[in-house]
Design brief:
Blueprint lengths: L2 E5 L2 E4 L4 E8 L8 E6 L6 E6 L5 E3 L7 E6 L4 E6 L8 E7 L18 E2 L3 E6 L1
Length: about 130
């Protein structure tokens, strides 16, 4: 049974940093693609950052240069380092995993690519 558990959310001031973690179990972690999504109240879930089996990454334009996605294959953990946070970054952040390789990087930020989801971790940014 695949389980994804996020942690690291919290409240920060604008300009601050947070690092989110997603621990994966029951999943062939190193073989597939994983990503981070977020959803603010009243808005659709959007892809933030993701990485595929080959190590290619993709970022949403709104976070490019501020967020960094990485993974530790030994720990089966995906990370999202978030710097220079803005109030508009506030949302519930979800970790997602796909049973596919997602070698086409275009697929990395599409929610429909992923079939496993975590419960989410809340990020709040005050101005």
């Amino acid at each position: 049974q695949v389980q994804l558990t996020e942690s690291g959310g919290g409240s920060v001031e604008s300009g601050g940093s947070l690092r989110l973690s997603c621990a994966a179990s029951g999943y062939r972690y190193s073989s597939n693609c994983m990503g981070w999504f977020r959803q603010a109240p009243g808005k659709e879930r959007e892809g933030v950052a993701a990485v595929n089996r080959g190590g290619s990454t993709r970022y949403a334009g709104s976070v490019n240069g501020r967020f960094t996605v990485s993974k530790d294959d030994n720990l089966n953990t995906l990370y999202l380092q978030m710097n220079s946070l803005k109030p508009e970054d506030a949302a519930m952040y979800y970790c997602a995993a796909s049973s596919g390789s997602c070698l086409n990087s275009f697929l990395l930020l599409l929610p429909t690519t992923y079939n496993y989801w975590g419960q989410g971790t809340q990020v709040t940014v005050s101005s």
